[in-house]
Design a protein that fits this description.
The chain is mostly helical. It is built from 15 helices and no strands. The protein is globular and about 60 Å long.
């Protein structure tokens, strides 16, 4: 069903063609099914990422609140940004595997981590490329807080090995990429990135004051409300919540990448669309919400009913992630 491959990543389209071939349906219907499934996959990926640090119940609640309550990536379905959604799911799974490198059984994280992080740029390149800039500050922070030189060397060595595996998997794709961006195209991208809907207006130095506006614009008021509530709960409960210092470092790096749209000082800035880059905050802030929920559950205890509600909330999230868009697409 795919006539030719160009510079645009074709991961979602290839999966859609595969589904269409196996299920004997039209190519467009195959891509549609994969697009719907991508939103479900984001919820699963966010849950796996949050669960690394908090209890099952807290992870269930945070996943339901954040993935159902965020404007993006849900809104991407409306205009056809589903390759970015699938890439977000793959990147989030990749972040989960990256964290496993520091612990026992790290070898079992190499192949899954390499596969999803190599598949992500083949699906959509903005978010994986953003990780190239967002992860080093987190790694530096982590290395500073590791106590022994041996643990630091092991983390760097394992990360290097994972990067090498990703590079090997991507060699065929990179050899045939053929990406050429003309000055006219770069100017068009620059104007697009600086639209008020994508990055706050005004001078660059005013950006910190406009971050809440940007988060509401891109992720929605409901999402920001839960985030603010989580921060208040953390302050209230103090030591009961798991630390999220690394997540806040990552979030700061992502917001600096959004700011870069106003400056274009980083190499490859034309590939760092601020509206897409902001999606990386979804799993990060979900973990912040999850840590606050976990602290509240530790302080106040849990009940079987609450567990059932949490499980039901996750099932509702998964059903909505796929079903809402499937039903809407069938209707249109």
């Amino acid at each position: 069903p795919i006539e030719e491959f160009g510079a645009y990543p074709a991961g979602l389209q290839t999966l859609g063609a595969l589904v269409a071939t196996i299920a004997d349906m039209r190519a467009t219907d195959g891509v549609f099914v994969v697009a719907c499934f991508s939103h479900l996959l984001v919820s699963l990926a966010v849950y796996a990422f949050v669960r690394r640090k908090v209890s099952v119940l807290a992870a269930l609640g945070a996943t339901a609140l954040v993935t159902l309550g965020s404007r993006d990536p849900q809104f991407h379905f409306v205009w056809g940004g589903n390759p970015t959604v699938l890439s977000l799911a793959l990147v989030t799974f990749g972040l989960t595997q990256l964290e496993r490198l520091e612990h026992d059984g790290w070898k079992r994280a190499l192949l899954p981590g390499a596969l999803v992080l190599a598949a992500a740029p083949m699906t959509h390149s903005v978010l994986p490329f953003a990780l190239v800039y967002a992860l080093p500050p987190v790694l530096a922070y982590r290395l500073v807080h590791l106590h022994t030189p041996g643990s630091k060397l092991r983390l760097v060595g394992r990360g290097t090995l994972l990067a090498a595996l990703i590079g090997l998997l991507m060699i065929p794709y990179l050899l045939h990429l053929g990406l050429v961006v003309s000055p006219q195209e770069k100017q068009w991208i620059l104007d697009w990135q600086r639209l008020p809907a994508h990055v706050p207006g005004g001078p660059w130095w005013a950006f910190p004051a406009l971050v809440p506006w940007h988060l509401v614009k891109r992720l929605g008021a409901f999402f920001v409300t839960w985030l603010l509530a989580a921060l208040v709960v953390r302050r209230w409960l103090k030591g009961s919540c798991v630390p999220v210092d690394e997540e806040l470092v990552f979030a700061s790096a992502v917001l600096l990448l959004v700011l870069n749209a106003k400056l274009w000082v980083l190499p490859g800035s034309f590939a760092l669309y601020p509206d897409r880059v902001t999606l990386l905050l979804v799993p990060i802030f979900a973990r912040v919400v999850g840590s606050s929920l976990d602290g509240a559950l530790i302080r106040w205890g849990t009940r079987r009913l609450v567990r059932l509600v949490g499980a039901g909330a996750l099932l509702a999230t998964l059903a909505a992630g796929y079903g809402i868009w499937y039903i809407r697409g069938i209707g249109e």
